[in-house]
Design goal:
This protein has one helix and ten strands, in the order H-E-E-E-E-E-E-E-E-E-E. By secondary structure, the chain is α+β, with helices and mostly antiparallel strands.
Length: about 160
Amino acid sequence: MIRRTRTFVCLAVIAAAWLAAGYRVSAQGQLEDAWLGTWKENVDKSSYRPGPAPKNPSVTKLERDGQGLKVTTDWLDDKGAPVHWVVTSQLDGKDVPVTGASGGLTRSIKLLEPRTLEIVTKIGGQEVTTRAILSPSGQLLRFVSSGANAQKQPVSDIIIWEKQ
């Protein structure tokens, strides 16, 4: 009886681990449709440290690219010149260059859960890690960033994006 109970418990633990691993893999492999579309940065609801806040909000378009994600971001720099960045990631956490960016800027994007991305931005030997969280309604994104910018200043941003 004890042997049978031990065998059952062992099989139950293995099955639970297998199911949990399978759920984790499927969660990492599937991007919810709610992520897709055009998003506008809400500068007034966001906080930027070290700052200053941007004068004009960024607009980002998220779209599928095979099994991955294509991120296109447009904004005006401090001098009013248009900036256009594109990054395509397979959501596997591997660094990829950001097209349109200077200075060897790379980003890695990893799908942690269906509604959570981890984005690591690297430039000039510095790194900023961002946790992007999609709201239950699918209408808001909250980016929480920490690390150091290219000037080696500590970064602590909370940026709110609204679906357009």
